[in-house]
Structures are given as structure tokens and as C-alpha cells.
Write a structure and sequence with these properties.
Length: 65
């Protein structure tokens, strides 16, 4: 699974540099998709029949470059 920018509390909890934290939080507000979007992609992949292989999944906001 290769997710793009997801709306999580990662920056809130794990980044101590205030400039980096502010930049990530700003970008998150502009672009981040919900964790639910990732969950739906995972469910899609695991619900495929036995004869279908999902080799990779990329989920990201449509506006993310």
C-alpha cells in the first residue's frame, strides 16, 4: 500500500520542529484525504476473489503532486 497524504495526527504527535510541523499541518489541511479512503481501498483489495491478485495500491488525494 502506498498512501498519499492522509488526515492523521502524525504531525501533531511526532514532529517536534515547529516549522516542519506547521508546514505539514498546512499541507494536510489543503490536501489530505480521510483515513476512511484508505480503509475502503484496503477492503477493496482484500475482497477480491482468489483468482485476482492486487499487486500494489496507490491511494492519494487527486490534487497531490
Amino acid at each position: 500500500m502506498s498512501p498519499g497524504l492522509i488526515d492523521t495526527s502524525f504531525a501533531d504527535r511526532s514532529i517536534s520542529n515547529p516549522d516542519v510541523k506547521a508546514a505539514i499541518l498546512k499541507r494536510k489541511e489543503e490536501l489530505a484525504i480521510s483515513p476512511d479512503a484508505i480503509a475502503r481501498a484496503v477492503v477493496f483489495a482484500i475482497e477480491q476473489p482468489d483468482d485476482v491478485e492486487i499487486g500494489s495500491v496507490v491511494v492519494r488525494p487527486t490534487a497531490q503532486d
